[in-house]
Write a structure and sequence with these properties.
With 231 residues, the chain is α+β, with helices and mostly antiparallel strands. The protein is built from 8 helices and 10 strands.
């Protein structure tokens, strides 16, 4: 996930908007900690289906009862599926899309980017253009172009359509394309080198599944870490 999630035990995280607005606020503290552990493992192995042991749960402060309660709550809120791998305390978890309740696919599974909904395309471009004075436009978004110098706040030659796979065009440098082309160009700009289409596709998939909610989680952990009893 190109380091979307870091964990020490929690340093930075991104969550889907639907989760922040609704689901996460309703979770018990132990479920938030368990969910962060699941996301960390999903990040580490670039796979939404992971295995976590009872020992790993204990290492983040979850006793057996809390671990069991967290599994139940995450399934109730359609954030993760889980099941027993063996009788030695090993469990599998699969991260779900909080908007649909469907299992998230692996980043290398084929998805038609041309059919991405407008809000996910917007989420992707807002992530990359947050430092380029991006604003809403009648046709989508406008911003300063990250691929050439423009006077800050004065001109916004980059136009983004939130349909047909995120068609974008800069009317000054004439760069244009769709999501994959933009991700490749940003990779070069950020010093990540030439990206394959597969790598660009994987990064896009990871970004559109997430939006920033780190402070929300960290604030809750700071407040509740010493006050929330484990069941």
């Amino acid at each position: 996930m190109s380091n979307i999630f870091k964990f020490a035990p929690v340093a930075y995280a991104q969550f889907p908007n639907a989760l922040v607005d609704d689901r996460l606020a309703k979770l018990k503290f132990y479920s938030v900690k368990m969910y962060l552990l699941i996301l960390r493992q999903a990040q580490r192995y670039s796979n939404p289906r992971v295995q976590i042991s009872t020992l790993e749960a204990i290492q983040i402060g979850l006793k057996e009862n809390s671990h069991r309660a967290a599994r139940t709550e995450l399934m109730q809120h359609k954030l993760a599926q889980s099941g027993r791998v063996n009788n030695n305390g090993l469990w599998w978890y699969h991260v779900l899309n909080p908007s649909t309740g469907e299992p998230l696919p692996r980043s290398d599974e084929k998805v038609d980017l041309n059919k991405l909904p407008a809000d996910e395309i917007k989420k992707y471009f807002l992530h990359h253009l947050k430092d380029f004075d991006v604003v809403d436009d009648a046709n989508g978004l406008k911003a300063r172009c990250p691929f050439h110098d423009t006077v800050k706040l004065r001109t916004k030659p980059l136009s983004v359509m939130l349909s047909d796979g995120g068609v974008w065009h800069c009317f000054k440098c004439n760069k244009s394309g769709k999501l994959v082309d933009f991700e490749k160009a940003m990779g070069l700009r950020e010093g990540r080198g030439v990206m394959t289409t597969k790598d660009a596709f994987a990064r896009i998939r990871r970004l559109v599944d997430a939006s920033t909610a780190a402070q929300f989680v960290l604030d809750r952990i700071a407040v509740e870490d010493e006050t929330t009893p484990m069941i």
